[in-house]
Amino acid sequence: MIAALAATVLAAHPLGNFSVNHYDGLTIHRDRIEHVAIVDSAEIPTLQQPVSGPVDAHARRACARLRDAVQGQAEGRPLTWQVTETSFAYQPGAAGLRTSRLTCRLTAPLRVDRPLTLTFANTHRGDTVGWREITARGEGVRLSASSVPSRSVSGMLRDYPADLLSSPLDVRDARITVEPGDGDAGTSVAVPGVDAITRYTGLLTDRLNALVGADRLTVPLGLLALVLSLVLGAVHAAMPGHGKTVMAAYLAGRDKRLRDTVAVAATVTATHTAGVLILGVLITVAASLAGEAVLGWLGVTSGLIITLIGFSLLRSARHHRSVHTPAHGHGHGHGHGHGHGHGHGHGRWPGGVVALAVAGGLVPSPSALVVLLGAMALGRTVFGVMTVVCYGFGMAFTLLAAALALRKLGDLALVGRLQRLRPYSAAMTATLVLLVGTGVTLRAVSALA
């Protein structure tokens, strides 16, 4: 059992379950240029595009489409590519799903009897997210200059470097100067670091995928999978860019109304669960649906909702200040009457609470979606739904804990000189909501670009 789980963990796709990853390896000879093109599709794109008919025929059709998307020029003259070899294979992926690997070998005539400038670009499936890498080397010729390295840092999409997973390569074109002779011009690839939270979250996700995809799902393994779903949901809610912290800050300032906090947490769970289920069904029935694009637009929608709430809160805070300030200029009884009447309006905005909750759970987690799809593929749909619900409960737990912690810190901080900031707390919270909403929106828009 342990060996089986380990094998499944190792098979989980490291670049994300929506990714379509490309490698282009160019080898330049005196009389030709050879091109090895590899397309490594993760679980969800593979699920959406099943092979129809013989595998060999599918590989030939796919490589013909790839050939048409490749542009190469030598001194401004187009290269004529011909497909010489094709192959297609499935590989085990996360949660019992499969990944796929398409390999195309192309060649184009080329005569290197003097210095030449070559340009290369691959636009195949350019609207998808994923790793894109190009290498170039010479055999019997010398590359005097090259914008790409001679060796693949990913082992031709078989061994992705862990330090590059958080910011994968996105190289879609190359410029090379080649001349008669031997030896290559070496270039290097910068390798950024990956934070510990992302690394350990990925390990937990792999363990969950392994449990869901196990051949025999026992009660202990099922319970462990549900616990991991809770943990991953809690960690997901704490990650930056989801707006959960600002939701907690908003709730912490709502006159200590714990029931509002619980209601929001429950709504976040329900919204996230519904979103994962709906998107899972759509991906299953619609092969042309770009899951990563749907997630991107949901992120934009979530950010806009939070931004609009921030504007409304800021306007409400300004109105409260303008009404409350002159009330102190009259007698005590009159001021008390106004203050009491306004207090029911301030901080009690059910529409805002619901909207924040919907925004917080609107973007489905890709890892929860993959677990659901894998469970459905294995005939464990009910169990998959249970893991998604637990994922939502984990998100709700983080939101509750953050709101209670911020409320406690607020009680400790607003003493002494800081007490004078209390009248401005509503405006400060509104500004925070507005800024975070704007940030979430911009981040989602940049991911779509």
UniProtKB/TrEMBL annotation:
Ranges where the record places region Disordered: 322-346
Membrane-crossing residue ranges in chain numbering: 217-241, 262-288, 294-314, 353-376, 382-406, 426-445
GO biological-process terms attached to the record: cobalt ion transport; response to cobalt ion; response to nickel cation
InterPro entries given in the database record: NiCoT_RcnA
Annotated GO MF terms: monoatomic cation efflux transmembrane transporter activity; nickel cation transmembrane transporter activity
Cellular-component GO terms for this entry: plasma membrane
Keywords: Membrane, Transmembrane, Transmembrane helix
Superkingdom of this protein's organism: Bacteria
Protein known as: High-affinity nickel-transporter
Species name: Nonomuraea diastatica
